[in-house]
Amino acid sequence: xxxxxxxxxxxxxxxxxxxEIGEQISRxxxxxxxxxxxVLKGGSFFMCELAKRITVPVSLDFMSVSSYGSETKSSGxxxxxxxxxxxxxxxxxxxxxxxxxxxxxxxYLLEMxxxxxxxxxxxxxxxxxxxxRVVDVHVDYTxxxxxxxxxxxxxxxxxxxxxxxxxxGVVEFEDEEVID
Length: 180
Ligand SMILES: O=P(O)(O)OC[C@H]1O[C@H](OP(=O)(O)OP(=O)(O)O)[C@H](O)[C@@H]1O
Ligand SMILES: Nc1nc2[nH]cnc2c(=O)[nH]1
Description:
This protein is α/β, with parallel strands linked by helices and about 180 residues long. About 20% of the residues lie in helices and about 35% in strands. Pathway: Purine metabolism; IMP biosynthesis via salvage pathway; IMP from hypoxanthine: step 1/1; Purine metabolism; GMP biosynthesis via salvage pathway; GMP from guanine: step 1/1.
């Protein structure tokens, strides 16, 4: 089997949309400092590109989470693998994600972060697959709503590969040509 990646959203389309969302965030947070919280690993590429386009003061922090074991995965309970370095108390926090799928991770994570007392807490995602939603999550900024296909690129992986693609694509598998 060989793999190739079909482009779903070109680099130009993604860049243009991140610029627009960056401008919108800059307007919405005028006069404030926005504290971006990146959920690793997938959110890191989007976070860097977004941060460059925000014109109000920005601070950054990173966290890494993983779902508890396969049996409890559907509960949406997440374990903190790497916690934030700084408290969120009284900060205007914007969580930055690569994709919202079932909504389980973000629903749990937002509740956890809300308990830390931020002044405000909003969510920004590069991609959203609304058809896959199991748990309701309020998303404040969405770059693209996409159909239910497994996507890679711009931080999203397939078996840890393809995160570095500068566009969003779908991995397609093809049978190798048999040579006699
Ligand atoms: O809405 P959900 O169904 O909960 O899925 C969304 C989660 O899945 C992805 O992370 P992933 O577990 O692939 O980790 P990674 O970013 O380190 O690759 C994504 O970054 C979200 O955190
Ligand atoms: N890489 C990748 N991770 C996901 N996590 C939830 N949906 C997806 C997806 O489409 N691609």
